[in-house]
Request: fold
Amino acid sequence: MASLAYKRVMLKISGEALAGTQEYGLSTDVVSFIAEEVREVYRLGIQVAMVIGGGNIFRGMEASARGMDRASADYMGMLATCINGLAMQSALEKLGVDTRVQTAIEMREVAEPFIRRRAIRHLEKNRVVIFAAGTGNPFFTTDSAAALRASEIRADALLKGTKVDGLYTADPVRDAGAKLLKLASYQYLLEHSLKIMDAAAVSLCQNAKIPIRVFNIRVPGNIRRVVLGEDVGSTVS
Reply:
C-alpha cells in the first residue's frame, strides 16, 4: 500500500457544500458522496475527524447583519452544524464506518458532549469523530472550531475541502486574473487577508504547526490523494 502522508487528519467542510445545487438545505446525494470519500480514507487506516459548517441551514453573521442579536444568531448557526453532523454520521454508518458526533453544546439524547480525551480514544479505536456546535461560543467560525479541535486532538493536518482547486491570490469566481498558489505561508494568508479561512483559524494552525491543505472536495478521490501526499490543491505551512 502507498505510504501515508498523515496518520490523523481534521477534515473541514462548509455547510454550503452539503447543499449541492440547492440554495439551502441538505442534498442527500452530496452527503452520500462525501461519506463515500471519507470511507476510502478511513479504509487506508487514517484517523479522521470532521467539522462541518452550518451555512446551508443558517448563517449567524448574515442574520446579525439583518438585525438579529449576533450571539443568538451564532448559537442558531451552531445548532445547524449539529443537524449536518448527524446527517453525515448517518451516511457514514450506512457505509459501515463507525462514527461518533461530539458537540460543544450538550444535547446528550443525540450526541456526546465534547471531551478531548474521549475524542482521541475514539480515533484510536478507528472511529470517525464529527465535532459539531463549533467551539460552543458565539463570534467564532467553524473554521476556528476546526483549527481548535485539530490542535486539541494533535492532528497531522487540517484538510480544507472547498469548491475550487486550492488557494488563490483572489476569489477565482469573481476575479478571472486570480492565480493558484501551490504553496503559501501562514503569514501570507494573514497579511493578504485571503478568505479561505479566518485569521483566528490560521493563527491557531500556525501556533500548533498544523499544515493546511486546501483542495476541491467535489473531485472524486481528492481526499485520498491528499492523505497519500499527492500534489493536489495547495499547502499552507
Summary: The longest helix spans residues 70-94. The mean pLDDT is 93.
